[in-house]
Amino acid sequence: GAVVSQHPSWVICKSGTSVKIECRSLDFQATTMFWYRQFPKQSLMLMATSNEGSKATYEQGVEKDKFLINHASLTLSTLTVTSAHPEDSSFYICSAKPPLRAGNSPLHFGNGTRLTVT
Amino acid sequence: GQNIDQPTEMTATEGAIVQINCTYQTSGFNGLFWYQQHAGEAPTFLSYNVLDGLEEKGRFSSFLSRSKGYSYLLLKELQMKDSASYLCAVRGSNYQLIWGAGTKLIIKP
């Protein structure tokens, strides 16, 4: 089945530094990938929709200058958390939708990245 | 506005049956998904409904009524490993997913 690989699985960084998270679709081309964050005991919150070859679409309240998204190829999207602060500590999850059977194809999720900012 | 409601938490006994309800109000409808999420892990896909009726997959079944804006996930022969959060998500008119807050299911021996 379709596999989405997300790296790193967990990262600890110091406040003020930047962290890059990669999301790769391993056996299909994904023109669209989604980035979510999830706080403990809460549901997924869509941050942005990443479109290959164009600018990402950010949800209301998400700072595009802080959460930089690059979707340079059909198999790779990256999320960079710039100048990270402790409140950015969260579980970040990417997902991608295979292009075929677009109506009912479910999202395939990466395993998530647990970010802790100290 | 758009809204998806599901119970926050449910408790059931190993071997029993549990039904997790989901009601939704969205602008447009292009399918409803159920996902299972164990603590600290990414969600995994369980089921998809776009037409009214029941879809059965082994121990799990999902039901949809579009006129009522209602779905449920039915879990039979519960096992301890079924302890997880169950997320209901609706694909709206712009094909983006709208997520419910999830139902934490606790299975007791």
Write up what this structure looks like:
- The complex is a heterodimer of chains A (118) and B (109).
- Chain A has strands at residues 4-7, 10-13, 19-25, 32-38, 45-51, 57-58, 67-73, 76-81, 90-96, 108-109, 113-117.
- Chain A has 118 residues and is an all-beta fold.
- In chain A, strands 2, 4, 5, 6, 9, 10 and 11 form a seven-stranded mixed β-sheet that branches.
- In chain A, a hairpin with a 6-residue loop joins strand 4 (32-38) and strand 5.
- The N and C termini of chain A lie far apart (37 Å).
- The mean pLDDT of chain A is 88.
- Chain B has 109 residues and is an all-beta fold.
- Helix content of chain B is 0%, strand content 57%.
- In chain B, the strands form two sheets. In chain B, strands 2, 4, 5, 9, 10 and 11 form a six-stranded mixed β-sheet that branches. Chain B has a five-stranded antiparallel β-sheet with strand order 1-3-8-7-6, with no helix packed on it.
- Chain B starts with a strand and ends with a strand.
- The chains are: A mainly beta (118), B mainly beta (109).
How is this fold's topology laid out?
The complex is a heterodimer of chains A (118) and B (109).
Chain A: E1 4-7, E2 10-13, E3 19-25, E4 32-38, E5 45-51, E6 57-58, E7 67-73, E8 76-81, E9 90-96, E10 108-109, E11 113-117
Parallel strand pairs in A: 2-11
Antiparallel strand pairs in A: 1-3, 3-8, 4-5, 4-9, 5-6, 7-8, 9-10, 9-11
Chain B: E1 3-5, E2 9-13, E3 18-25, E4 32-37, E5 44-49, E6 53-57, E7 60-65, E8 70-75, E9 84-91, E10 97-99, E11 103-108
Parallel strand pairs in B: 2-11
Antiparallel strand pairs in B: 1-3, 3-8, 4-5, 4-9, 6-7, 7-8, 9-10, 9-11
